[in-house]
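Section 3.1: Structural characterization of target chains.
Under the original work plan, the team committed to producing a structural model for every single-chain target entering the pipeline before any wet-lab resources were allocated. The record below documents one such target. The sequence was received from the expression subgroup and is listed exactly as submitted; it comprises 168 residues.
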Amino acid sequence: MAHEPRAAGGGARTVVVDLVTAVIIFLLGALVAWDSYRLGASWGAEGPQAGYFPFYIGMLICISSAVVFGQSLAKLGHDRHVFVQRDQLKQVMVILLPSIAYVLGIQFAGIYISSAVFICLFMRIVGSYSWLRSAAVGVAVSAVTFPVFEIWFTIPLPKGPLEALLGY
């Protein structure tokens, strides 16, 4: 078995993350069950009511998260493994933060401009490619996907001000 790092001065323990996650998932399951019950979670004259199946799914989520909570609580006193190291978290953030910015950028600039910028910056910063190559690939990908989706497949994707200027 591989050696797992121990929790040090700034890292959250895995068991604590498990406990918090179990509580959050339990609350979401309870919300699903409660709202499904409000809609009608019984068997009516015509069959199951609207909330019948979601109610039981919510209950299964609650039961599962309660089991995880109990298992984690049993390990709380002796499990000292750290959930994530700083370098591991940095690797995740290198992907997560630009991806969040990309999704937000789609709302303002449309998918084609946002994709070109995302690909260009990602290639440059993470891949260490030249600015010219990064920009060329970003623009080329967007230039190819635009006619494929908008013209050939007639699938409208989110557009921004540039596409509006072009009449799309």
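The radius of gyration is 24 Å.
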